[in-house]
From TrEMBL:
It comes from the Bacteria. Residues 36-99 form the DUF302 domain. Coiled coil: none annotated. InterPro entries: DUF302 (IPR005180), TT1751-like_sf (IPR035923), UCP021774 (IPR016796). SUPFAM superfamilies: TT1751-like. It holds the Pfam family DUF302. This is DUF302 domain-containing protein.
C-alpha cells in the first residue's frame, strides 16, 4: 500500500506554523478553501479538550481544473488536506495528504500526472516550513 501522507516537524510554535504553512501554500499557488479547527469543534460539540489541531483544505485551481476535466468524480478526493497539530510533547507536526498516492487510485495517466506535479509543490511547502 502506498503512503498516503508525508509530514515534517516545524521549528516554530503552533500559531506561527499555521501562518507559515498558509503562506507557503500561497507561494506555491494554493489557496485554503476550508479551515477546520478540530480542537474547537471537539470542545464545542463534545466538551472535550484537545491539543491544537487544524485541517487546511488546500486547492491549486489550475491543477484542480485539470483533474476535474479528466475525471469529473475526482472532486471526492479534493482538496489536498494539510494538518497542523501540536503534539503531546509540544512539537508541531505538519501532515500533508500525498496527492500522488491518493490521485493514483484513479489509474488515469492525466490524473496521475496532476498528482505528481501537486506532490512536488506540496513537498516544497513541507521544506519551507519543516526542519
Amino acid at each position: 500500500m502506498s503512503q498516503i501522507v508525508f509530514s515534517v516537524t516545524s521549528p516554530s510554535d503552533y500559531p506561527t506554523t499555521v501562518k507559515l504553512v498558509t503562506e507557503a501554500l500561497k507561494h506555491e499557488g494554493f489557496g485554503v478553501l476550508t479551515t477546520i479547527d478540530v480542537a474547537a469543534t471537539l470542545k464545542a460539540k463534545l466538551g472535550v479538550e484537545h491539543k491544537p489541531y487544524i485541517i487546511l483544505g488546500a486547492c491549486n485551481p489550475h491543477y484542480a481544473h485539470q483533474a476535474l476535466q479528466a475525471v469529473s468524480d475526482i472532486g471526492a478526493l479534493l482538496p489536498c488536506n494539510v494538518v497542523v497539530r501540536e503534539e503531546e510533547d509540544g512539537r508541531v507536526s505538519v501532515v500533508f495528504m500525498d496527492p500522488e498516492s491518493v490521485l493514483g487510485l484513479i489509474a488515469d495517466p492525466r490524473v496521475e500526472q496532476v498528482g505528481r506535479e501537486v506532490a512536488e509543490k506540496l513537498h516544497r511547502v513541507a521544506r519551507m516550513v519543516g526542519k
